[in-house]
Write a structure and sequence with these properties.
4 copies of one chain form a homotetramer. Chain A is built from 11 helices and 19 strands. By secondary structure, chain A is an alpha/beta fold.
Amino acid sequence: MTRSDATGHRVAMLGTGLIGDFYTMTLHGRRSRDRVEVVYSRSVERGDAFCERWDVPHATTSIEEAIDHPDVDTVVIGLPNHMHADAIATVAASGKAVLCTKPLARTADEAKGILDVVESAGVFAGYLEDLVYTPKTIKALASVGAGAIGDVMWVRSRETHPGPHSAWFWDAEQAGGGCIVDLGCHCIEIIRSYVGKGNRPVEVMCWSDTLVHPIEAEDNAIALVRFESGAIGQFEVSWTFRGGMDLRDEVAGTDGTIWTNHFLRTGFEMFAGGDGGYVAEKAETESGWLFPVGDEVAELGYVDMFTDMFDAIDQGREPVETFFDGYVVNAVMDACFRSSASRQWEPVELDWRHGTTSRIAKPSRSEDGMVVIKEEHLPDGRRKLILKDPAGGFVDRIV
Amino acid sequence: MTRSDATGHRVAMLGTGLIGDFYTMTLHGRRSRDRVEVVYSRSVERGDAFCERWDVPHATTSIEEAIDHPDVDTVVIGLPNHMHADAIATVAASGKAVLCTKPLARTADEAKGILDVVESAGVFAGYLEDLVYTPKTIKALASVGAGAIGDVMWVRSRETHPGPHSAWFWDAEQAGGGCIVDLGCHCIEIIRSYVGKGNRPVEVMCWSDTLVHPIEAEDNAIALVRFESGAIGQFEVSWTFRGGMDLRDEVAGTDGTIWTNHFLRTGFEMFAGGDGGYVAEKAETESGWLFPVGDEVAELGYVDMFTDMFDAIDQGREPVETFFDGYVVNAVMDACFRSSASRQWEPVELDWRHGTTSRIAKPSRSEDGMVVIKEEHLPDGRRKLILKDPAGGFVDRIV
Amino acid sequence: MTRSDATGHRVAMLGTGLIGDFYTMTLHGRRSRDRVEVVYSRSVERGDAFCERWDVPHATTSIEEAIDHPDVDTVVIGLPNHMHADAIATVAASGKAVLCTKPLARTADEAKGILDVVESAGVFAGYLEDLVYTPKTIKALASVGAGAIGDVMWVRSRETHPGPHSAWFWDAEQAGGGCIVDLGCHCIEIIRSYVGKGNRPVEVMCWSDTLVHPIEAEDNAIALVRFESGAIGQFEVSWTFRGGMDLRDEVAGTDGTIWTNHFLRTGFEMFAGGDGGYVAEKAETESGWLFPVGDEVAELGYVDMFTDMFDAIDQGREPVETFFDGYVVNAVMDACFRSSASRQWEPVELDWRHGTTSRIAKPSRSEDGMVVIKEEHLPDGRRKLILKDPAGGFVDRIV
Amino acid sequence: MTRSDATGHRVAMLGTGLIGDFYTMTLHGRRSRDRVEVVYSRSVERGDAFCERWDVPHATTSIEEAIDHPDVDTVVIGLPNHMHADAIATVAASGKAVLCTKPLARTADEAKGILDVVESAGVFAGYLEDLVYTPKTIKALASVGAGAIGDVMWVRSRETHPGPHSAWFWDAEQAGGGCIVDLGCHCIEIIRSYVGKGNRPVEVMCWSDTLVHPIEAEDNAIALVRFESGAIGQFEVSWTFRGGMDLRDEVAGTDGTIWTNHFLRTGFEMFAGGDGGYVAEKAETESGWLFPVGDEVAELGYVDMFTDMFDAIDQGREPVETFFDGYVVNAVMDACFRSSASRQWEPVELDWRHGTTSRIAKPSRSEDGMVVIKEEHLPDGRRKLILKDPAGGFVDRIV
């Protein structure tokens, strides 16, 4: 960064829902030099309340007016999923930078259209996938990149809570699906980040069901995503979880293991005999044992995400999360829905841009002409070998 | 129990491997009134060492001699999987009680044969599935039974470690498979216990692969088991996990959540700058941060398992874990292998003995003629409702 | 153990309070060969209910009759503190074994009298300090004994909960004090076990106060106990803690660290949306996030404690916890009360029976004629030394 | 904040040690609008390396030159303790804002002199006590302020690690003491924040010893700080802890409990079979089970601390942590050293500026003319009361 960048960016925020609040809390927090200049809402009342709440100078009920505001250089899309494509097309036409909340679209086709539009226009486009930017994930990914756990074989990403806060999420038409679209998009990108973004997602096996809520969309789903290297991603998403918001990732490598817990167990525990007040997003109770989160927008990745986005604009580079990533996520989700219906593995259909990834290495060593399967150190200092005879059969040997 | 039972049982232990050690440590521990009277091993040396180690009066290299020992009333099978059927048949013929380690057999067919033999003979038969008997699981199951978490929707059971200690485990021929057979059998029975043992396992979707070890058997697998109620079981098993033995179960109910951790995080943490000595089964290191387990045989369920088995014999009732349970587990594992090959959901083929289970309840209430999807309490004391209009569409409403 | 011991012990249980229940649940649990034969209670009704509850053959309202029951060989004292001395004297006169709950007495003088009585009579006497016998503590002590954490420098033992269940605990006259006597006795013995029981407690600094309850006895106290080796013990006890029963120990050694958590965080977590039923001793709520304990009597040490006591009788050896230990605990508590009043360090007045312990070792090494204070490994592979010049002053050096 | 503040502050950083690095990493991190303009170091080499490392425009070996740099409006003191007073006096004379690292001084006398100097000069002065600003602490303090846990009775603040990184820390002359001065200063201010900064620290009882290192300064200390309300603070500090940096706070209130863990157990766990690389400040190992911290400067409070400091300057208000707070901390530490020598409680000698605080409330209610000591809900739905008879004695009653 050069010091002249210190003037910061001026943002048009489209949408005043929970995500608009979180984004603006982040943009205006700490000693940030970036500011929301104008907010769009369908409702005058909600727009004005938003300006009041976050000290934003202007509100408007016109998306175009928000985008075209002369002081604005960057537009943040915080709208329901079915409105992304049109809004992004308008921003692209304006030539300004566009940052879009997750998921990018409702289907891979729609996402591909969005991707084509911004690429044709040549505007900066960033995909606001916050959970890839949590401080824990950033450091864990750096360790994986440095080889600390060897080749990644398996990633579990879990996001479950008691259900979203706004009506449109529950409407499969507007949202493009249920908890797979709402939560699975996070998990898929976390998984991709750990197995390597150049590691192609090949096929998907998915189960989904509507177990509790009187809706058409799925309120529970589990999927396996198989990558070209042989690595397997596993996501679990639910709108029926009880106890708060469960955000955990687990990674198994050939040489190590990583577990991160972003929300319910982060080293902050409170027992409130009476009324403990607001605890954390989607907490269910305000008394008894509670598990608050220190700084939610930081722990959920918003701070580091916007830092990457604006630094990328300033430095003329791509952000860590691009619209291509958003498109890949939609392609995996499409395969999930197909698999859930067909009840078998379904290929991920995708215009892949990266290269190929070789199979996870399986090096072996020999001892006395036999392959060493396992070596253990015994309490008495000796070693126990489990060996495989090329002629067939396995033997134990103490050495 | 009547006081005359206090004389206890006399056991023939078949096998001197790790499991024989754990079983005998349990049987001879605490103030137990039961004793191992005779041990069978193919090897004179190992039999004698076992007698010495556990203060057992007799060793023999003949299975028949061990079973027929006049003081023995109960035979424990701690042999490799491919030897179970013959050994159990011999015990059945003797009329004595038989307790068999997990898995019962290598296939459902073999298990059904075993079940028929003991039922024809009319002998007491107990299935030594220890992890269903861990103190945490017993109390958690009691809470589930009391309705503390509502209807069980999802159970995750995970057992992973760096691989087994004896050569025969690695030989698919002798073992009947790899980590599915070694570890999945535990998970399946834990899952069944939480969703209800009368809840029929209907079908299975399984992924398996051999990612690290130079063997034919699978060293990693994940499976989904769908039950008649709609509940889904998920197991993750691996012989390539790094960091010790990961034994965790997670249960999601319509009204609550249960998480149990049996091994690596149980409230016992030690940093050893130098050499900390033996830590726990399958621990990988003896310095740095270590996570010992207080009383392994208790925490792994062996104590409560044998208590149930012998109390059941004394009281003339069935144990909690029967050979029928072992047979169901084998039937689910068979479906896992078929699914892994066919790459689609496979039915669990089984002579089911219990009744039918109805679908998880999905009760709903209405407000103003609309279905309530979700209700949240806002910080200002008001309620936010998300409602579904029968005419189509979802709306937010603050009341 | 020889097999003829298998006939077990027959116990007279004096007292039907919470502790009598826990002891009997333990004695009759698992496959135990020991049984309570007769119970004493002041109240016919409570005695009969106890017999019914635990399948005990006989109840009596006479302590003498209970002790003299012909089938009884061991008497367990589960009475309020002020009744210990007389009851133990009666057992001693009978020549039977006596096991006394904690604390042994209300003061060191009273404890010394009790000790003299049982030693004169030559009867077996065991001090029922259960928390030294928790499975985690037993294994942790073994690791400390094996040198895993070097010399023990500091032990924190904490026991806090919302207050005891029976009226007599709250009466300083009958109990001999408040939470120091009720809970501190556990902590002191845990601390002694970690620093070494042959390590003399030299002096004590104690703060106590009555912060919440309308009573005369202290409801909060903190004490430091300095041992001959220089090691420091720290206990925190409270009857005003909110959130359940907090039972944690922390140990710092020159080469390592141990943390044990016996109750509130043991790897068992439950969220109950409705009513979860009984959770654990002193749990405050039955819904929200709950932290049950798998097998309370095992986790609290009762199982291993009675195993040690009866095995010691059978083997003709001393138990791990003796009446001398109980006397030492009382002497430390006496010093606590004196210090709390005098507001300064007070000596522990005690007829010490063990030898002396040398000061914690402080070995040092030199490099270039300077003493090495600290050595760090830098990320680039170099070492950073902090050195002390014999001529005075400290310097950093990268090597 | 008004938008014209967005130009940010220009800082002179005095000192290039670990703390200078952490501060500058924070000031230049995220989307900050504040920048370090000039750095002072005794060493040209270290100053230049610092400029290179953090993209700082100017280095100087003259403190005066750094302070007087025309673009600089704020000076940060990151020097050894014995240099604080002179450097602050120089800044005060310049009229610029001064932010000083902890501890403010080596003694309360020295701190009072510093306080007088900045107050006479009328400059903005902020005390850089980062751990009061950790995200968890900020939220926990807000909950305490909102009454979530009632009156605070007890606070434990613990900071222990294997010893500091620079030579001067180990020299009691330059530092003013050992781990009390290095670490206790944090704990004291955390404790004050929880019990209320207007709650006067009345007296202190402290134990300290030099158990491991060949130095004169204390390497271990424990202190109790009694406040006017009756609340008790407890701090544990050590330079001999093994296993990383242990930073935990525990708070007991009349209605609730708070536990925060800032470093070793924050929901991020990694097992590295080989070499895991840099883990976290003061981590001892790079393989085995490791506990990294997501974003260290955020988790340790640096981000929120500088936000408060610069926002306070911009808004013309006092920061949360003032030089008066630094002076109070020094006064408490002075009492610690006196108490450690006198072996009794020592008063905190202090020009107190706040008012008085009343004793923790002890409300009680009566039932049938007796005082209710405790009320429990029994499993069968009845209530058990423990009552105190005004005539003397305590009784149990089931109602």
